[in-house]
Amino acid sequence: MRELKIIEVKSEIGAGARGSSLGIDAIKIAALDFGSRYFKKYKSVEIPNENHLILETSGNQFAKRISGILTMVERISNEISKTLVKKEFPIILAGDHSCSAGTISGIRKAFPKSRLGVIWIDAHSDIHSPYTSPSGNLHGMPLAIVLDEDNIESKVNTPDQETINYWYQLKNVGNIAPKIKYGDLVYIAMRDSELPEQYLLKKHKVKNFTTLEIRKRGVERIALDTLKYLEKCDLIYVSFDVDALDPSISRGTGTPVPNGITEREAGNLLARLMSSEKVCGFEIVEVNPTLDRENRMAEHVFEILIRATNSLIND
Questions:
Q1: Which of 183, 201, 185 has its CA nearest to residue 193?
Q2: What is the predicted pLDDT for the residue at 59?
Q3: pTM over 0.85
Q4: 222, 268 Cβ separation under 8 angstroms
Q5: Cα angle value 81/85/86 (rounded, 5°)
Q6: Which CATH superfamily groups domain 3-313?
Q7: Which parts of the chain fold into alpha helices (H)?
Q8: How many C-beta neighbours within 10 Å does residue 295 have?
Q9: What is the pLDDT of residue 315?
């Protein structure tokens, strides 16, 4: 049985829409509404955030608030690394998806010689860089950070020197770059990517299990195939962006995309993935209750969290 630790990251400076920093408290309210003691049961820590930067100018046009993101990635990395060294299992509840660059950095810091696989359950491919991003929002760049990817071949932006310097520092947090390989990355339910990202996905033949495949072959088969694909990895990290869910379930996330998976499919998928002993960390991101009605997204996500946690403690 694994000892779990909840790591709260109420950071939203990487997102375009405001409100994802409130997602963790929304999940806690859902737990109360369900009469659950989940958040009393496990020890938790909250990582200080840099959300005050939202009130200031976004700074670097092609990588907004990148200095604050660097600070957050370093803080998250240190906390994740400490948690893993103590043989605790981190469940990370975070605001925007840029936080995951810190989680991956922390896993590699704790296990510098281990090969890390990443399961990215998300509507988006999140593989932009300051050279390609149409929005400049860092929550679209975490995988490029950990892959040490600039994608100069698809360059559409010309970042200033300050942005380039911060970007270099971000990719090299923990002095390991790249932190993962393209062949050790699996997308599930990814269905929205832009041309520069599509170039990389095609070039590196990145694995993506589509919603249609999940429907056709079933969650169990997809989970097994995902774990088999990553069988050469020593460790596996699972990141769940709630926009992987279909907007018909709830629009309580910043960038909803049609044709997503159902709450039941997500719960079954995560329960199956979490039963693998190689899984060393699990992250949920992008719950935004300000875009929701009656806290529906947080309630669905809490039920998914329970499913995943039960798999962890019963493995």
A1: 201
A2: 87
A3: yes
A4: no
A5: 120
A6: Ureohydrolase domain (3.40.800.10)
A7: 23-33, 38-41, 66-85, 99-110, 142-147, 161-171, 195-203, 211-217, 219-229, 263-274, 296-313
A8: 19
A9: 60
